[in-house]
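Q: I'm writing up a methods section and want to include an example of the input and output format. Could you take the sequence below and give the corresponding predicted structure tokens, formatted cleanly so I can copy it straight into the document?
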Amino acid sequence: MALYENRKRANAIWLGLCYASVVFGLTFLVLILITLFWNGFSGLSLKVFTQSTPAPDSEGGLLNAIVGSLIITILGVLIGTPLGILAGTYMAEYGRNSKLASVVRFINDILLSAPSIVVGLFVYQVMVTRMGHFSGIAGAVALAVIVIPIVVRTTENMLLLVPGSLREAASALGLPRSTVVQRIAYKAAQAGLITGVLLAIARVSGETAPLLFTALNNQFFSTDLNAPMASLPSIIFQFAMSPYKGWQSLAWTGALLITLTVLGLSILARTLSSQGRTR
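A: Here is the clean output for your methods example:
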């Protein structure tokens, strides 16, 4: 009986610690969201989407930063996604148990957990110092390096979930291996692959450190990939650190836009993932 009471007491203490941890984490999350929405919505207006970033103590918006972020992010995803899908396909379809796949998987795991500032420093050394100036294309390459390991891991996991019987049935019809992968495996894992890309977009859309080392910033509207380019994370960092109230308000609004974008992409990824599991 004493043993039962001790176990019951230990279980209650452990359960209480778990509940306390959940409350502790959620409290900070709610406080962050309330602060973000409270300060962000107050600066939200049409000018944010139609005017470029202003000079100190004057009115303006975030148009150049929004356009710059879209260009850099889309280009980074376009560079990183094909490489990630091909590498993930090799590990899941061709070299599943090979030593090379094990090495690639190990390196990919390291890249997946590498701090983004290290990636930015690497691209700065490889591209920016050789080009002699900051540029939007260097920022896109930095984001692509972050996108690749996410897409590789997702692609491999999703393709491994495809039943082998589907591949065997297609191969029995005389289809070559490449066709089986493209038309059978990719189609069966389509929802998961798209989810991986969306998660990668959500991850890089708020990255600041790699862009500070590569694309830097631009106070003016520019779509020149060979020149410094504005982005929302860089503008948020610059404006939040400034003593000007107008810039600080725009920093909050920029943070709100990124949060809403990431939230929308996460919901879309979850929806696609759940649809893929129910098929």
